[in-house]
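hey all, quick one before standup. I had two proteins in the batch that finished overnight and I want to keep them in one place so we stop losing track of which output belongs to which input. First protein below, input sequence then structure tokens straight from the run.
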Amino acid sequence: MKRTLVALAGLLAVGLTACGGGGDPLAGGPGGTAAEQPPAAADVIRIGSANFTENRLLAEIYAQALEAKGVTVERQFGIGSREVYFPALQDGSIDLIPEYSGNLLQEIDPETTATQSDQVYQQVTEKLPDGLIVLEQSTAQNKDAVVITQETAQKYNARSIADLAPHCGELVFGGPPEFAERPYGLPGIERLYGCTFAEFRSLDAGGPLTVSALADGSIQAADLFTTDPTIEDRGWVALEDPKNNFAAQHVVPLINEAKASPEVRETLNAISAALTTEGLVQLNRQLADAATNSVESVATEWLAANNLA
């Protein structure tokens, strides 16, 4: 019960503060809700993003590439978690968002057992609600991972979640609020590995709160993204997942089918063809230097380097 209350409170906070200090970018006005946001004009693509830096960057790459082709776009970045932005796609509040194949599939089919790339992608294409489609997926993947420090890995001789499982009751786990309830989150880890952590702390989605808590020892295990350069830079250990709790997570454009013209499809598919996992790690490393790099400048540089704008 304690975990559920913490998660629900955190999820509410995400919905209310998804855009930092600016409120919900989908709200129709003071006191508004996402459902009150009118659809974009027929010749405009409204692009959304989740509330973490990599997804904002991918959304900005989509936006700049489409603008270079003469497409009018509106940006609605930092919406929040999937539980917030997926309904916005369905009701037309936004038209396009960078998604991750495995987590998207579990959103539309929580009972799925698909974990491999091709199977996940096929099921996503078959099970999406009417009016939404995915375009070509990239080879780039950003998966959730259970991450521990090198000291914790040595203490428990742990290189996989299975290795850590006998000791989970001694550890505090931190991550985004929704991780407590999502099928691949704590429920999946408990079901597949018998790993029940002593406590769950609601923090952020692969962001500074989670990184700081793992670094200072207030949590001993965390949900971080595999493209986060912090893992490599700090010598942390992303535990192996031999039972495939975390499905394939390829970056893929999720779009309102009515807005997916041939030119839009070609532009976004070209971006997917150029994205790699190693490239995402490097892009995230650039963004970590906020003093000299912004989402906009990194997107512009990447598009130019790949002859896409």
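OK second protein, same deal, sequence then tokens:
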Amino acid sequence: MALSIRLSRGGSKKRPYYRIVVADARSPRDGRFIEKIGTYNPLLAKDSPERVKLDGDRAKHWLGVGAQPTDRVARFLDAAGVRERAARNNPNKGEPGEKAKERAEERAEKLKAAQEAEAEAVVAAEVEAATEEPTAEAEQVAEATAEETPAAE
């Protein structure tokens, strides 16, 4: 018989309360269990001593018999000092998925194309301004600024 140390949910809707139980791995989550070895109330503050209550001696006994804790219960056992839990390392956890990477590449290509088009428009405007013959108004403005500059000195 495969034993597991796991959480069995109680409480009402939106108000969870869990019992830490030793049960046959094949029995349903909230079904028959062999022994209740603690409780977990996720609604309490993380630093509250009432949040996780665990009978360490019974937990050691069941681990010695061969019961396997679930990930969450293994965290509780580690915090209680009953059983050491190996730290996990997932370096790819924060990496975006395939589709997100494709969207980012498309966005980068569109941005690059827009910048190139903008640069071409600026160059075209400069070339057009350079080839344009000065008008009479532009000559008058140039003469007026030339007259004001020496007077200011």
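Flagging for whoever picks this up: Residues 77 and 83 are 6 Å apart (CA to CA). The mean pLDDT is 85.
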